[in-house]
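Researcher: Next sequence.
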Amino acid sequence: GQILDLLASFQKKNGMAVLMITHDLNLVRRFADRVIVMENGHIVEQGAVADVFAHPQHSYTRRLIDSKPVRDVAERAPLAGEQAVMQARAPLAGEQAVMQARALRVGYAIPLPGFKGWFRHGEFVAVQGADFDLQPGQTLGVMGESGSGKSTLALAALGLLPFSGELQVTGQAWGISALSNKSLRRVVQVVFQDPFSSLSPRLTVEEIVGEGLLVHEPGLLPAQARLRVLQALLDVGMGLGMDESQLAGLLQRYPHEFSGGQRQRLAIARALIVNPLILVLDEPTSALDVTIQKQVLQLLQRLQREHGLSYLLITHDVDVIRAMAHDVVIMKDGKIVESGSAVQVLTAPMHDYTKTLLAAGG
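Model: Next structure:
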């Protein structure tokens, strides 16, 4: 929102024209005067923004406009009484959070200016005093602007950064050694933002998706591992309708041979193959156009229902939070400034920063 305001001020001051390339429809609505819609290298529709969005003529334009994420998750039972939608539900008796943090703190060493830096380092605190609970089979959304501490929180949850405070996964704490953390590595897997850079260009599909089995199930025979890889690919919608020879060809292909949406499906299959309980989703759809984003979110929703997965969802996209999250935490400057049920936070935000985020997200 701040960048758009900056562009608008320069535009007004200098009479500047702006050609903006984007797949963000909310951004187009907010900033553009005219819009061009392209498909397969061709302009299929153009006109004033208000006219195109109100009366789209081309089928592809209509698909784009209809690609807003749809909520299709298993909803939990509400609290009794009228305050059900206004507060986060406490865990039911006997229900234990699969991930829990109390007073979580993550700091980075930074150099000090002058001769002081010869003897000691300063510290930048990226996450401070964070408390959250991720419930079984549900999604906890983490929202905030760039630099708010979202990704640092995700890395700590994955046991990839040193931290202080309490952070437990299925009742266990991350240890110091790789060996002590091996069992938790299977429980918590991750899907990154960019499906191209997160997949090795030197490995085939079979090697990428099956990599986790080499660590967690080294006793599997090659034929058994291949069957597991094929099942993981089918679970994420890859290889459906293919015969045996086509499937064999699919396994030997490389990431660059697939579209962005297909690569993200491969990344999800790689995470799923070791049967985790928790997926950390770090901006899993922000690199995808809106039509593919909707498909990937529908896939994640289906997998959550079928496998009882819990998601720690890091995103700045309000529409994604509305579609996916059961609970939400809002981060600013490394601190959680608001938390609660998704209904509570999105419909009746209490903190001014949350209100600003929601307004900027359209």
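Model: The longest strand covers residues 121-134. DSSP finds 14 helices and twelve strands in the chain.
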